[in-house]
Structures are given as structure tokens and as C-alpha cells.
């Protein structure tokens, strides 16, 4: 017989081999968690807090790109009434408000112009 039989090698370092196989997967998960998952959760939490703190008179940017002024905030309801033009008021869902715009101070407006 020209071919000798093949025998499986004995797994002498069984526990160590398992750790070396799982270490790259654990490392990849840790990188994804700290670079992707955690910052996204933090951003979502900040957005929820911003929506809770909406008040009358805030200038907001909706998801549709409309800049509006908050006229009525209804507690316990997901709707906010905003004015998009003089005497034009619409109700929008809180979740569609993307950002609260900061007012431009008079000093900043003069410096830009």
C-alpha cells in the first residue's frame, strides 16, 4: 500500500484553541459597540430629551426641511402645533422635529453682515 492512513491530530490545547478562535470575534464586536452602537444610542437619547424640552416660541427644523415656530405644545400627545408662515399653523408629530434652531444674537448678525 502506497498511501498511509491519516489520523486526526489530538487537540492538546483545547481551551486555548477556543480562546484564540473567539478572540477576533469578541474584538470585532467591541469595536462595533464603541464606534457605532454606543454613539448612536447616545444621539437618540439626546434627541428624545430635546423633544421633551420643546416649548412655545422655539424655532424648529422638521424632517421635511421646514423651519417653523412652535405655537402650542400639547402634553401627553405626540402632536405639536407649529407656524410655518404668518397665520399658517399646522400640527406635526414630535418625532418629525429634527432640531431646535438657536436664535442668532444681534451681535452675531452684525458681524456676519
TrEMBL record:
Keyword Chloroplast attached: no
Keywords from the UniProt entry: Cell membrane, Membrane, Protein transport, Translocation, Transmembrane, Transmembrane helix, Transport
Membrane topology: Single-pass membrane protein
Subcellular location per the Swiss-Prot or TrEMBL entry: Cell membrane
Transmembrane domains' residue ranges: 12-36
Superkingdom in the source lineage: Bacteria
Protein name: Sec translocon accessory complex subunit YajC
NCBIfam families: yajC
InterPro entries linked to this entry: Preprotein_translocase_YajC
Main location per the UniProt record: membrane
Task of the protein: The SecYEG-SecDF-YajC-YidC holo-translocon (HTL) protein secretase/insertase is a supercomplex required for protein secretion, insertion of proteins into membranes, and assembly of membrane protein complexes. While the SecYEG complex is essential for assembly of a number of proteins and complexes, the SecDF-YajC-YidC subcomplex facilitates these functions.
Record family assignment: Belongs to the YajC family.
Subunit structure comment from the entry: Part of the SecDF-YidC-YajC translocase complex. The SecDF-YidC-YajC translocase forms a supercomplex with SecYEG, called the holo-translocon (HTL).
Organism of provenance: Paracraurococcus ruber
Transmembrane as UniProt keyword: yes
Pfam families (alphabetical): YajC
Amino acid at each position: 500500500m502506497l498511501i498511509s492512513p491519516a489520523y486526526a491530530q489530538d487537540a492538546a490545547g483545547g481551551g486555548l484553541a477556543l480562546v484564540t478562535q473567539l478572540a477576533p470575534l469578541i474584538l470585532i464586536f467591541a469595536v462595533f459597540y464603541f464606534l457605532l452602537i454606543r454613539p448612536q444610542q447616545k444621539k437618540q437619547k439626546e434627541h428624545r430629551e430635546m423633544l421633551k424640552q420643546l416649548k412655545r416660541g422655539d424655532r424648529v427644523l422638521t424632517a421635511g426641511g421646514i423651519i417653523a415656530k412652535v405655537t402650542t405644545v400639547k402634553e401627553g400627545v405626540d402632536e405639536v402645533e407649529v407656524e410655518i408662515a404668518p397665520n399658517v399653523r399646522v400640527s406635526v408629530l414630535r418625532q418629525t422635529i429634527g432640531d431646535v434652531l438657536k436664535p442668532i444674537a444681534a451681535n452675531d448678525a452684525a458681524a456676519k453682515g
